Each structure stands twice: as structure tokens, then as C-alpha cells.
Amino acid sequence: RKAAPVTIAYKPVDLDTPKPRKHDFLDYINNNFHNTELTLDLIANDTGVNQRKIAATIQETFGCNVKTYINQIRINESKRLLKETDLSIGEIAFEVGFNNQTHFNRVFKSMVDMSPSEFKDHTI
Fold this sequence. Notes:
This protein has 124 residues and is mostly helical. It has helices at residues 24-32, 40-47, 51-62, 66-84, 89-95, 101-112, 116-123.
């Protein structure tokens, strides 16, 4: 008896897709910093870059850990929003990726040496 042919469905290898550059995870962070769930684990999973490589590159390049790097981006964006919009501090906190205003206020004050409301008052 002759064996029935076996059909295997597969996705052909795409040779035209560029391989990710080693710093593509920085673009990923810059585009996703507002995600409250953004963690080293998520960055590594979504970019395919090893967690240790991400952490080491950020440490070498920016002199801080991943969480601090993400918070620096969030605080820089919150400063812009405090200056340029009429959003409340709570709205800005959520907009830039903090899931509660108390934590946002604490991180903001530790990085800027003033509270978000003091910062807003200074920029008016």
C-alpha cells in the first residue's frame, strides 16, 4: 500500500525582513513608555532582546537601571504636558504610564526636586 501524502502548512522564511538592530528595544521603550505594564520582561519578550543585554546597555548608556530609564522618559513627558496642556496632574500621571498619582508625585519630586504642582506653578 502506498502512504498518503502529508501536507504541512508552514510560513515561508522571509528574507526581506530586516533583523532588529541592537538598540531597537530603546525605540520600543520610547514608543511604549505610557504602558503602565511596561517591564524589562515585557520589553525582552516583545523585542526578542535578552533581558541582561537590555539592562546592561541601558546601564552603560544612561547610567541607570531600566525602571529608572522608563521613569525618566515618563517624567520628561509629564513636564512637557504640565507646561503645554491643561490636563490635571492625575490625568498626566496616567497619560505617561503611572498607575497612581501618589507614586507619580513621589517619582516626579525625586527626579525634579519639586512636586508636579510646584513645577506647573513655576512654568506659568
